[in-house]
Amino acid sequence: MLARLHPQSPQFQKITDLLYRAEAGYAGEIKVDRFLEASDLPEPFRVFTDLQLSIHSNSSIQIDTLLVTPSYLLILEVKNIAGTLHYIQHPPHFECTYEDGKTIAIDCPMMQLENNKTALDLWLSRQGFAVRSTGLIVMANNNAIIKNAPEQMKMIHAKHLPHYFRTMESRKRILTDKQFQQLVERLHSAEPTYHPYPLLEKYRLNREHIRAGLICTYCHGKLDRMNHMSWKCSQCGQSANQPYKEGLQDWFMIMKNSITNKECREFLGLKDSDAARYILKSATLDKVGRSRSVQYVWDYRNSPSKLKE
User: Fold this and answer.
1) Both 203 and 298 in a single domain?
2) Average pLDDT for runs of 10 along the chain of length 309
3) Residues 16, 157 within the same domain
4) Phi, psi of 28 (to 5 degrees)
């Protein structure tokens, strides 16, 4: 995404920050998953990650990790934050101070967790399950220092998860085996299909700020054609063998789910319509229309990486 967005774009820093937070969040969830695997949880149990549930027609929730057992439903609100966090009561939030002295404000994870618990309990009630969830804030970075957190804020470091789960083993059952299986199936079937594309629309970007041409995947420099089979980056010298395929992937992820011959020529920097037609026909795309009105359509239910070589 950033490779295609001009640094002069007003959205560049915002998108950079969003991607950084997304990557940090994903890395934190991976760390927590490792501790879950090492916790030797008693069967049966199911772990749902990045769970999305529709609560109303126009609203939904996203839960980092949900652990479902016959004895409890535990929401894990995962935070992968370094530095020292000071809790501020009014309004509830954390101020995070990094080693370089930089301080930023962070939304209160307890409020996020309580909102998710309330929404999940509502969803459970509508599904006919008379149970309530519980929650825990998990700091994925074990070096994070927490100060002034209120006593009611249940928060632990990820490395302490195995011990925490052992303290939960004595809980009484709230679900029969049949109810447990039904709930797991409902959660699986309730997740909506998530389509993050096109990013241009999602982040309200200006088309004029999107870079066209063939771009190096290593340094984002311009690719120069060496022969009919290979290209080379003019900036870092790396070779590329499938830049047209990668360029098409960028188009469908960023711009829209369809492309014309003219759009293909302009975006990939092709000289004639025959070259564009060959590339488009070689990809796994649906052809719609005839003659000059032909469009090639990518189904967003498929991964863009599944475009043919």
Assistant:
1) yes
2) 78 70 66 79 90 85 93 93 88 89 88 95 96 94 88 90 91 95 93 72 85 90 86 91 89 92 94 91 88 85 58
3) yes
4) -65, -40
